[in-house]
Structure formats: C-alpha cells, structure tokens
Write a structure and sequence with these properties.
Elements (H helix, E strand, L loop, with lengths): L9 E5 L5 H7 L4 E6 L3 H11 L12 H5 L6 E4 L15 H4 L4 H12 L3 E7 L9 H12 L3 E8 L10 E8 L36 E3 L14 E5 L15 H4 L5 E4 L17 E3 L5 E3 L2 H7 L12 H9 L4 H16 L7 H12 L2 H8 L3 H12 L5 H16 L18 H15 L33 H16 L4 H17 L17 H12 L13 H17 L7 E2 L9 H4 L5 E4 L5 E8 L6 H11 L7 E6 L5 H18 L2 E6 H11 L3 H14 L5 H22 L7
Parallel strand pairs: 1-2, 1-3, 3-4, 9-10, 14-15, 15-16
Antiparallel strand pairs: 4-6, 5-6, 7-8, 8-9, 10-11, 12-13, 13-14
Helix pairs in contact: 1-10, 11-17, 12-17, 13-16, 13-17, 14-15, 14-16, 14-17, 18-23, 19-23, 19-24, 21-22
C-alpha cells in the first residue's frame, strides 16, 4: 500500500478537450499536472475554466520533453479511434501503432510509468477494423506491464439523462484489477428535472412536425421515448409506398423524443444542436446549449466561450463528468488498497503478467519435453478448440487456488466434485475475453458438449473431442497435476506464455522445403497445395481459404513473367484485396497482366467452390469488352461442370472470341495449376514465391501460416516413411 490516503493523487489529461476528465477526477480530490489538446477553441475554454494552457501537440513532443513533465499517478485520455498499420508486425505492437494517437498514449505510459490509466472511447472500438484495433491495444498495454479491464458504460446510469454508451478502459501497473462492479450508479430515466424552466426557447410550430399516435409510443430499454419527427423534405425516389417517412426518422436531427425519457447521444457532428423534445404540455422545442452541457454533467457555472456551433461540437466531444467521477473514485480506492491475491481474477492477472516476462519462458522450459509438447498442442489448437482451452485454464486456475480439490471432478454432481462451469463463467471466460485470447468463449467452455459430461477428466474420459492429440494433451496435463503432483502454476504460466507469444507473433515463419534444385517433384507440390487449400482447422468461418489458390497462381505468374517469351515486356499488377469487388479494387480479376502501355493483357479469375456458368462468362465479358487489349481471360474453378454446362460454356466462349478476339478459357483450377508448374524452369522458385506471399499477405491470419507447416510436416513424414528415404525427391 502507498503509505496513507492523505497523499494527493496526480493525473495527466491527454486529449483534454474542455476538461471532462479533469472535472471528474478533481471531484475526487486529485490534482492535474499536465493537459494537452490541439483544438484552439477547446484550449480557449479549458484556460477560461481552469486557468491552464492546455495547447500541446503530443505528437511533436520528444521523449525527453515527456520525461520532464511532472510525475503523475494516473494518465487519462479520450483518444480518437484509428486503424493500425500492418507494416510493423515484425517489430512488435509499439511499432505497429506508430503514427496513431494511441501510440502517443503508449509513449507516455512507457516513459512516465504512471500507476494507472483511464481511457475512454466509442463503444464500437472493440469491433473496429474487425476487432484487430482493440486486440493490438490490449496486447500493447499488457506488454507495458498493465493489468487492464474494460467495460461499456452508459451515461444515463451516472446521474444524467443521456443514453451515451462509451467503453472505459482502466489499467494498473501494480497488478491491481479494476472492478467495474464497485462503481456507484445513479440511473436516470427522465430529462424533466434537468430542463430549464425559463429562457429563450426555440419552439417548433405544430405544422413543422408529426407526432406518433399514443398507442405507437413506447419506452425503449435505453429509456429513449421516440414520439415523432420533423416534416422535413424527404427522399421519395426508389422508396416503397407508405414508407417515405422513414427517410425522416433515420436522420437523427429530424427525430423528436419525449422529455419523460432520456436524450439520445449528444454528437460532436451536430453543430446546430438539433435535439428536439416533446414537453408534457404538448409543445416541441429544441434543447438549449446549457441543457446539453448539463446532460453531460457539467455544472451550470461552467464558462462557455465562442460560437454556438463550436460549443455544440465541444460538448459532443467531451466525456460524461459524473461517469468519470465514479470511475475515478474506484481507481483511487484501488490504488490505496492492497492486492487480494486470493481473488481468482487478481490471480489470473498476476499469472498473465508473469507469463509475459521471462518467468513464463522459464516455466515452459522447466517442463519435461513431453509436457512441453502437451502445452504446444493445447496452444496450437487454442482457436479451433476454444472449449478445451478454456476448460483447461479453468481447471489449472482452480487447482492453484484450491490445491485440495481434484479438478478432474469438474461437476458438483460428481462425488467430491466442484462446479467448474460456474467458476469459468464468473472468472475465467471474462478474463480470457478481456485480454483478447483467441481461445475465449462467449459464455463458458463447459457449453462444449464433448466436455460437459458427468464423467471425470481422467485418461478414460469418453468425450468425443475432435482432435485426438489435443484430447490426450488435455487429459495428460490434468492427470499430471493430480497423480504426479506437478505444479499447476507452471502449466498455467507456460500455456499463457505460449499463447502470448503466438498472439504477438503475427508473422509465422513458414517451412521452406527447398534445400537444393528440384528437391520437390511437381506431384509433391500439387499434393501439398491441395492439402493447404483444403485445411479445415483455420477458423470457424474458414475465412481466408479462398485466398490461397489466388496466391498460388500469383506466385506462378511471378516466375512466368521472367521465363516465358509470351510475357516479355509485360508486368504483373500487385494484388488487390481479395474481399474487395472488382469495381472497388479497380481490377478486372484476381490476377492481372499489363503490357508496356499499361493496358490489360491477360486476366485470371479464381472461383473457389463455385461452378462456372454462362452468366459468369458474360460478367467477365462485360468487364473487358470495352478495353480491346485483353488477349486471354482465364476463369478457373475448383468445381467441374457437367457435360451440358461445359458445352454451353464452350459455345459462349467461341461467340465472344469471334466478337472481341479475346479467348475466355474456363478450366479446372488444380488442372491448370499443374500445367503451369510443368511450364516453369524452376518449381523451387515457385515454392519460395508462394511462401513469401503467404507470409506477407495481410488478409491471412496466423492459422493459414501455421497450417502450411502442419501439412508439410505431416505429408513429408508420410512420404519418407513410404519410401524409406530421408528427403523427398532423392
């Protein structure tokens, strides 16, 4: 504990705006030692209210300048949400976030090492950029040694009448876990007591709006009560009859809400402050600027300077003051309290923090080779067998905290058993989800039917776990801690260390089988590619599988461009996003060859698991018929058409050739791949190209890269065993 509570906690206020964070924390007796923002109007208001000059561009500050800022206990910031570059993957998360404002937060944390931080952002941050943004953030903060927790909070639960959901992220570098359940709540369900009773109000004339019939008005779960809309100009073209009014309703400035409910989110984009409410007297008016500030928890004597439009912008960009006040109170208590290491969440956070240090690797290296293999197997299947992973983490954690319990007895109905599912649901799964483990379940690992059986997790457990090696590793680890008395903490550290390593290592090093010229025969290559294309343990959605054939053909064309006279003077266009339409990507197919004048010369379109038909051929024709330069257009599919469809395709392709002079060639994907490989002078170059492109493709995840290593090792083992040789091709 840090001596006594008489010590005044100090904080730095990044992206300070008009001081919402400052007000909330100062109400807890804390002191601001540094503020920073670059919006001149926000800084003007900040100085007017607090007397401090907050104009600082933190992106221009040197590390030395940051170091010279007075020390502080807490860093705060409501930072903008930005995507992170993939260019820095090999250099780690700090490099990956470089150029974003979140990177500046990491810089401040790494240089000043405050005891805690409080960050705020839009609630959809966790889904931004497909969830990747938030994962990078969490991992970056963890790697700086911070134990973090996050939750979406709503302003209406903290004493103001505004339905404003924001994610709050709190971290501690002392291993202390922020408990959102300790926040003091003060739910509000109505605007009425927050409204001005007198003033210069902007009322709407009844002819300017339409109210819903009373039987159509309902209070939503958010406490919003939508009652009508303004009669603004509506869009009618392309709109179904009797739905025209929806174009009004869908625009926030046109909506009218009852003052007996709460107000929707005050937005920084609404510079005119068009928030209209229906009063109990039946009149409709606009919220005043003072009411908007009051709805965010700012005091009535808060000084507002500048143009009205800018004042609306400032309040929309601010944070809910009483919400921050409540969070600040719990942070203050957290920093002055001892860590209760018997608490399961605190224990997990401690192990997770240790796992990211050398102790995690030491624990892994301290295991026997067999037990390290068990750990590797579990972590390699973390994403595919989430239930198994979660149940194992639950079992190991429970054993660490309650060593007298035989955790193989995972159900309370078993004699001497305990409720593993309850422990997981309350502690383990929330911890895994919060720290963005790829093995995190939605609710509980025990929801996996193969695991939730009233049978002990001994070596005879009958559950039909899909991967036999993973099942054996899972049961063996539990058997070892119960029968061989091995330390469960060592396993937990080792598993977390490998999961962290696996998550951080975005770039997987692929096996390069080429040791000498022609070390792989074409049949070997074809078989490996077929296994890689069809590998079934990537993710639940199998996303990315269809990219691999495209990469294979692109890799072949990289060689063909250099080797074949047909392509002399031609160039291979860099691949566009596989998930963008041709219209959006600006290309006519997956692979495009251009001539010296940059005209499209040849195109390859890959159709995985799709039957090529005449409509598809016509679509292709429409893409290139106006170009006049396309010589060949390949449509390659993994699905073979029947004789009737084949005849139709041939007939239509002949017609297009006579009309345009372009050959459309419909063929089997694997058949064409095999043919192209036989054209190459060196298949070794193709293999190296393929591995290079798989490694660098941003739309593939680690599973696609790991799977290459798996299929290569498995296939080569079978090959060597069959032919009783050391290396294939000899």
């Amino acid at each position: 504990m840090r001596n006594s509570e008489s010590k005044t906690l100090k904080f730095a206020d990044l992206f300070s705006g008009i001081g919402g964070f400052r007000l909330g924390l100062e109400r807890n007796g804390m002191e601001c030692v540094f503020s920073a923002d670059i919006d001149t109007h926000a800084c003007e208001m900040y100085k007017e209210n607090y007397g401090d000059d907050s104009f600082h561009d933190i992106t221009a500050m040197t590390d030395e300048e940051i170091s010279n800022i007075p020390d502080f206990d807490i860093l705060t910031g409501g930072f903008p949400c930005q995507s992170f570059s993939i260019s820095g993957r090999k250099k780690g998360f700090m490099d990956e976030t470089r150029g974003t404002l979140f990177f500046e937060i990491l810089r401040f944390l790494s240089i000043k090492r405050p005891r805690a931080f409080i960050l705020e952002n839009v609630k959809n941050l966790v889904h931004h950029d497909g969830g990747r943004t938030f994962t990078v953030m969490v991992d970056s903060l963890n790697r700086l040694g911070y134990t973090i927790n996050h939750k979406v909070l709503n302003s209406k639960d903290f004493g103001v009448p505004q339905n404003r959901e924001r994610i709050v992220i709190v971290g501690s570098n002392e291993g202390k876990f922020f408990d959102f359940n300790k926040l003091e709540m003060n739910p509000v369900h109505s605007m009425l007591e927050f409204l001005d009773n007198e003033g210069d109000f902007e009322y709407l004339d009844p002819s300017e709006y339409t109210l819903l019939p009373p039987d159509k008005v309902k209070r939503q779960s958010s406490d919003l009560i939508f009652v009508g809309y303004r009669n603004k100009k509506i869009r009618v073209k392309g709109v179904r009859p009797n739905t025209e009014y929806l174009s009004r309703v869908h625009k926030m400035p046109n909506r009218i809400y009852s003052a007996q409910g709460v107000n929707p989110t005050i937005s920084s984009q609404e510079s005119s402050g068009r928030y209209f409410i229906l009063l109990p007297n039946g009149k409709v008016r606009k919220l005043t600027i003072n009411e908007c500030y009051r709805f965010m928890g700012f005091p009535d004597d808060f000084k507002k300077v500048g143009q009205l439009s800018k004042l609306y912008n400032r309040i929309g960009n601010s944070v809910c003051v009483p919400m921050i006040e409540s969070v600040g109170k719990v942070v203050k208590d957290m920093l002055f309290n001892e860590v209760d290491e018997s608490d399961p969440t605190v224990f997990l956070e401690k192990i997770y923090k240790l796992a990211g240090s050398q102790k995690g690797n030491d624990a892994y290296n301290g295991l026997t080779e067999e037990n390290r293999n068990f750990v590797d197997t579990i972590v390699s299947k973390e994403k595919m067998l989430k239930g198994l992973y979660t149940v194992l983490i639950t079992s190991l954690t429970y054993k660490c905290l309650y060593p007298e319990q035989d955790v193989r007895l995972h159900q309370a109905s078993l004699k001497g058993g305990y409720s593993g599912r309850s422990f997981d649901t309350k502690y383990v799964t929330p911890f895994l989800k919060k720290n963005r483990f790829s093995g995190a379940m939605k609710e509980s690992g025990w929801l996996t039917r193969s695991l939730e059986q009233p049978e002990p997790f001994d070596m005879n457990f009958p559950g039909k776990i899909s991967n036999k090696n993973a099942k054996f590793a899972f049961l063996s680890i539990l058997n070892n801690i119960e029968m061989e008395y091995e330390k469960p903490e060592n396993y937990l550290l080792a598993i977390f260390a490998k999961s962290i390593e696996r998550k951080a290592k975005e770039e997987v090093v692929l096996i390069r089988p080429v040791q000498k010229e022609s070390s792989l025969k074409i049949d070997d290559i074809m078989h490996l590619l077929k296994l890689h294309f069809g590998y079934k343990n990537y993710t639940e959605t199998q996303r990315g599988n269809s990219i691999l054939p495209v990469i294979a053909f692109y890799s072949i064309y990289e060689s063909l461009i250099k080797e074949m006279a047909r392509y002399k003077g031609k160039k291979l266009t860099p691949r566009k996003s596989h998930y963008s339409s041709d219209k959006n990507s600006g290309e006519t197919g997956d692979i495009v060859i251009r001539d010296k004048n940059n005209n499209i010369y040849e195109v390859v379109e890959i159709k995985s698991d799709k039957l090529v038909d005449v409509l598809m051929v016509n679509d292709a024709y429409n893409k290139f018929k106006s170009l006049g330069s396309v010589q060949r257009y390949y449509i390659l599919s993994t699905v073979t058409p029947d004789e009737k469809v084949a005849r139709e395709l041939s007939k239509r392709c002949d017609e297009i050739f006579r009309e345009s002079g372009t050959q459309i060639i419909c063929n089997g994907l694997m058949k064409t791949l095999n043919y192209y490989l036989r054209l190459l002078d060196s298949t070794d170059e193709f293999i190296n190209n393929y591995i290079k492109n798989v490694e660098s493709d941003p739309e593939l995840n680690a599973e696609h890269k790991i799977s290459w290593n798996i299929v290569y090792n498995e296939y080569m083992k079978k090959y060597r065993d069959k032919h009783n040789i050391t290396k294939p091709g000899n």
